[in-house]
Amino acid sequence: MKVSLFIPCLVDQFFPSVGMNLFKILKKIGLSVNYPLEQTCCGQPAFNGGYHADACELAQRFLEIFGNSEYIVTPSGSCASMVKIFYPEILDHSTYKEPLQEITKNIFEFSDFLVNIIGVKDLGVTFPHRVTYHDACHLLRELQIHQAPRELIKNIQGIELVEMEESETCCGFGGMFSVKFPEISIAMAEDKSSAITKTGADYVIANDSSCLMQIGGYLSRHNIPIKPLHLADLLGENL
Asked: Are 204 and 134 in contact (CB under 8 A)?
């Protein structure tokens, strides 16, 4: 099985370990992994900001780069949903109908890919800590992925998963939202951090680096000793 790795902008620029650990995980389970060097942003920031022409240009580029991929795997529910859900909205010309069908069928957020496509739930990882899990908005609401990351966490030896109250509530990042409405964004981060703290967890796990940036920033600024950790890092660093 051949997999093309799509690494989002935030991962590339701020959380490179997430991409490297995802590569490590996919190789560990015996997959052939390709990383197209010419890949760029999926266009979500432009799309959310109302610059649909620029988003279309990036979407077309994405189709050109990943069009022949057997599977496309990404460590971001947000970017996966942009391609799978929103590309068909902005690329409605008949020219793109066939490549769009292939791309939207073949792109997966990595926990969904591991658990539901190739049936891998236990990577033989040990992590003797208490953790809680945050449901990222696009991963949950657009892609309907709730159980897959929890399956991977529960199969880690020594781990204790404690569900937080309202794990499905937004952390307040929302890309452009946090810039346009900083006061609301901070209040939402405060509520999320309070729920995390009540679990007594050592780590908060999520599958989107943007959420972890938002949550981790609030925890750090308020000297709350709970560490944000992407699921790919949790699994990859402890293989």
From this structure: yes
Paired residues of 32 in beta bridges: 2
Name residue 23's amino acid: F
pLDDT band at 176 (very low <50, low <70, confident <90, very high): confident
Tokens linked to 119 = 């049936």
Task: Please give the helix or strand (H or E) that residue 91 lies within, else none.
Answer: none
d(CA 144, CA 136): 11
The answer to whether residues 197 and 224 touch, using CB atoms and an 8 Å cutoff, is yes
> Any idea where the domains of the chain sit in the sequence?
2-117, 130-236
| Rounded average pLDDT over 7-35 | 97
CA separation, residue 233 to residues 23, 38, 46, 90, 237 (Å): 11, 24, 28, 33, 6
CATH architecture of 130-236: 3-Layer(aba) Sandwich (3.40)
Give residues with Cβ within 8 angstroms of 188, minimum separation 6.
169, 170, 171, 172
Q: What tens digit of pLDDT does each residue of 188-234 get?
A: 999 999 999 999 999 999 999 999 999 999 999 999 999 999 999 99
